[in-house]
Amino acid sequence: MISKKKVLLSWSSGKDSLWALRLLRCRCDVEVVGLLTMLNREADRVAMHAVRRSLVEAQADRVGLPLWSYDLPTRCSNEEYEAVLGRIFARSRETGVAAVAYGDLFLRDIREYRERQMGASGLDAMFPVWGLPTRDLAKEMVEAGVRAKLTCVDPARLDVSYAGREFDRDLLEELPESIDRCGENGEFHTFVYEAPEVFSKPIGVETGEVVVRDGFCFADVVGR
User: Fold this and answer.
1) Are 105 and 132 in contact (CB under 8 A)?
2) How distant is the alpha carbon of residue 81 from its chain centre?
3) What is the C-alpha to C-alpha distance for residues 221 and 119, in angstroms, rounded to an integer?
4) Domain extent at residue 189
5) CATH code (residue 152)
6) Which of 76, 108, 157, 164 has minimal CB crowding within 10 Å?
7) Looking at 73, 104, 126, which one is the last position of a domain?
């Protein structure tokens, strides 16, 4: 029997992480053994996506994987971030994890940064969705039944009225042409609450308060 490479998946709670998991689970040479999530310590929410801890825990329950959650301060320095990474990498090696996978699509500088960090760790870096055409990918996600909400919008790139909207066919048709359909340039971030081929069952949610804070527009997603 061929030994499978144990993989830890960086989990933002959004659609790209979800799709990376879907693709990894289609492979016979790897085994995803956990979801890695960074949380804002003060807000107790996923950094940038602003998703509540309880909802990320619900996602982990639906995919049947343990959640590796790590807290970061609101104003996190690069030194603090890399210290947390060091603890993650050490725990990974101790538990037999051989690689960390990321949901990055095409931002070369981010990939190169991750590869530099991973190179010093002794772990491999994997990018399951890298290079997939985002317009086609977004459509494929919707057609596969992935349901998500836009939890964060950059008002400098996209109107705040998009915060809290469904990531669906209507959204993809209405987005300005300048906006990447997967939001890879930081235009928006999402929270997935239903994924028929990945989640055991949907997560009941509703959109709560929408606020503008620190230069971004956030839509709170509340479990129900």
Assistant:
1) yes
2) 17
3) 36
4) 134-223
5) 3.90.1490
6) 108
7) 126
